[in-house]
Amino acid sequence: MNTKEIENLKKEYDLVWEKLDEKGIKNVMDFSEGYKKFMDASKTEREATCEIVKMAELKGFKNFKDVIKEKSLKAGDKVYAVNKGKGVALFVIGKEPIENGLNIVGSHIDSPRLDLKSNPLYEDEGFALLKTHYYGGLKKYQWVTIPLAVHGVIFKKNGEKLNVVIGEDDNDPVLYISDLLIHLSQEQMEKKVSKAIEGEDLNILFGSIPIKDKEAKERVKLNILKLLNEKYGIVEEDFVTAELEVVPAGKSRDVGFDRSMVMAYGHDDRICAYTSLKAMLDVENPTRTLTALFVDKEEIGSVGATGMHSKFFENTVAELINIGKDYSDIKLRRALANSKMLSSDVSAAFDPTYPSVNEKRNAAFAGKGIVINKYTGSRGKGGCNDANAEFMANVRDIFNANNVAWQTGELGKVDAGGGGTIAYILAQYDMEVVDCGVALLSMHAPWEIASKADIYETYRAYKAFLMNA
């Protein structure tokens, strides 16, 4: 073998941008415009669910409840099922029986944030404030002194559901969490970063004007309650029947003078939700039944009725089989065991400013395509899925055959930390699963960064997998 032939034995992971012609670059840029619009409309899991359903219905997907009533399902049909307003499953019915297995891409649509406590509103020294409880893994110091918005729902005493968004419109006020001025921060700055801002100190400034009656107690709080009642018709007790989430205020933005990156809140993991959604909307008449899953609660362990540990997905697949009037438990078990899945979740991009946490040969890089993570977990692969070599080969071959730019990666050095996904939960059904998604900078920060090239390649990768696994 000559030197050139020997060099071809190596695997090089090149920047996607270097392979793109003018049309390819336009495709990447155009795709990211749609992505930014989705992200701006989907800052909570409820909002993301609404956007997913809206986009699916425009592509001919029918509500699962209607399909059950009609008792009719055939190859090529498109169906969606909603889980309590916080999750969705999309299906494109294949030509083969469902018990032969499904091709699945599964992402989560919750992101780290601050939740209002059940009794959040109080007054202290002329300020009305809101108590919060942080959700998911975040650096608390990143959430102070930035503009914040509140999104969510309130159920009033009369049963009315009220959708609330404050802080996103240019004419809205924003919310804010204060921090100590540098002049008085000597003691604070000697603390560990993890202790500099305590969870109970993430209190939101919500007002400072008192009502006129000087004999009343908590006059600023009363004025806020008066304003809330006038605008929304709610009383303080309605906070108990509310789900109000505090997120960074503002829209997604292009990053870099070349506009090659996107800054957004909630890349983790709505970046994989959008790319898998678009892939599902663009497939037709598959051989195997295709599924896109969008679940809640991943950031806190996939628990609860809307997390991946719930029976929602299993029950929905059972209902699909039952529509054919030939349901049995063994057919459901076969369907799940014969399935193949990409756990569509983000990975960590190598950051040249902080190189020490990565082992460079096994790190993922922004702009080099979708990342395949054979395993996640922490230290000795604790809590990970660790995909089979056979399935890794299957995924690699699909990507190569469809000219998808891909790379592999780990979540940092072996002892640097770690993280998890929903992969291990689906693997419990005996299905083949591997983690596969976009590499991010500043993951779990209020604003995260992703390469536009990676966003588009991830869409292409999911589409190739769905049609060819």
Task: Give your account of this protein's structure.
It is a single chain. This protein has 469 residues and is an alpha+beta fold. The protein is 29% helix and 24% strand. The mean pLDDT is 94.
Topology:
Blueprint: H1 3-7, H2 22-40, H3 45-58, E1 62-63, H4 64-70, E2 78-82, E3 88-92, E4 102-108, E5 113-124, E6 127-135, E7 148-155, E8 161-166, E9 176-177, H5 186-189, H6 193-196, E10 204-207, H7 219-232, E11 242-248, E12 253-255, E13 261-264, H8 267-281, E14 289-295, H9 312-323, H10 329-337, E15 340-343, E16 347-348, E17 370-373, E18 377-378, H11 389-401, E19 406-408, E20 418-419, H12 423-427, E21 432-437, E22 439-441, E23 448-451, H13 452-468
Hey, roughly how much beta strand do the residues contain?
15-25%
Distance between the termini: 35 Å
Tell me which CATH architecture of the largest domain applies here: 3-Layer(aba) Sandwich
Assembly state of the chains shown? single chain
Total of helices? 13
CATH fold naming of the largest domain = Aminopeptidase
Query: What order do the strands of the largest sheet run in, or round the barrel if closed?
Result: 1-2-3-14-4-15-21-17-19
User: Per the principal axes of the C-alpha atoms, what is the gross shape?
Assistant: globular
- What would CATH call the homologous superfamily of the largest domain? Zn peptidases
User: Which CATH C-level class of the largest domain is it?
Assistant: Alpha Beta
As a whole number of angstroms, the C-alpha radius of gyration is 24 Å
The average pLDDT score comes to 94
Number of domains: 2
How many beta-strand runs? 23
Q: Work out the helicity level.
A: 25-40%
